[in-house]
Automatic annotation (TrEMBL):
Name of the protein: 1,5-anhydro-D-fructose reductase
E.C. code: 1.1.1.292
The keyword Membrane is annotated on this UniProt entry: no
Alphabetical list of InterPro entries matching this protein: Gfo/Idh/MocA-like_OxRdtase_N, Gfo/Idh/MocA_oxidrdct_glycsds, GFO_IDH_MocA-like_dom, NAD(P)-bd_dom_sf
Principal EC category: oxidoreductase
Amino acid sequence: MLQALFYHNDILMALQSTCSNARIDVVKNLNVGLISVGWMGRLHSRAYLATAHHYPELPVRAVLKCAADPDAGSRSHATDTLGYQEVVSDYRELLADPAIDLVSICAPNFLHHEIALAAASAGKPFWIEKPMGRSAQESREIAEAAAGAGIVTAVGFNYRHAPAIARARQLIRDGAIGEVTNARVAFLADYSSDPLGALTWRFERARAGSGVLGDLLSHGFDLAQYLVGPVVRVSADTETYIRRRPLPSADAASHFSRGTADAPTGDVENEDYAIVTARFENGAIGVFESSRIAVGPHAEYNIEVYGTRGSLRWDFQRLNELRLADTPSGYRTIMAGPAFGEFARFQPGAGTSMGFDDLKTIEAALFLRSVAEGRQVAPSAADGWAAAEMVDAALHSAETRAWVDVPRVEGTTIGI
């Protein structure tokens, strides 16, 4: 008993000595304002809180201060479940609050431009989901407004943060697969494969902009440019295979909202499927394919990069694996582990998987770091603009049946 007491006293003295000699860092709280408390808004909220656990060295901590949503149920969820201190119905009230240090813009596509410009005008750094604007013009105006206001930004290109992608990027830059010759990107999903899927705003050109090009392939465009380099011209074709859908009920808002067979129908105004051939600035050729009506794939988002000495493959559905062929024996599977990107912050060793939410936590940490350091670290509004220029060029090519040049964007792009 006495021996145990001495042992505990030794531990206490050691802890006191460590604490007295340790440097105490001052951590600043940053008040978060959330605009729209849907699925993505809830994910942003969880990601902010998770950064304190996975990125303890950050000199800032996110405080869930205020959430804005016109829906009363969503506002209740923000306070009762997510832990926001305050809620408002109008996002303008949130942006006018001097206590708000940064905002997450998780509203539907057709509100992005309006809200992002208002955030820039208010001097609030913002994290916005993609597609950033309904067009390249809207995306350009958002990026230029942020640059003019001198604020940092973040865009939700979460797939580039997968540790396997970080490893793939390093291998390509180290010359492990030689000179890149071509890339293939396929973003195939089934979320709109049911003809009875309701005609929500996502199928309306005025509110969504493009269809699968902006919704899915903007991710693919960003991922390819992140790994291979800028795209300079494209040739594309698109098709809308499910041309009419049942009109939605009052509460239908998501990809998965469903109508009934006897409901009145309306026209689908944007594309279900897109195929794009591209030429990269470095001479490589790319092929991009995307569908929101594929029967079979749920979220089969993959990229393949081929070089003169090897190739590599990654699929989001197996996000912790990278397939690498750098010898004549062909492909081998490499499991993501502590040496890959940010993996070690989430799991101790290869074989223990990271998930989708973890990728958003990396995003949140990059955004908070950008705000704390006053410099762009996260994928920027300029990156969002770059992807939008590819989307618009592809749409123009599909209309004209011609190759279309992709304009280079101005501003700070990260990794392109």
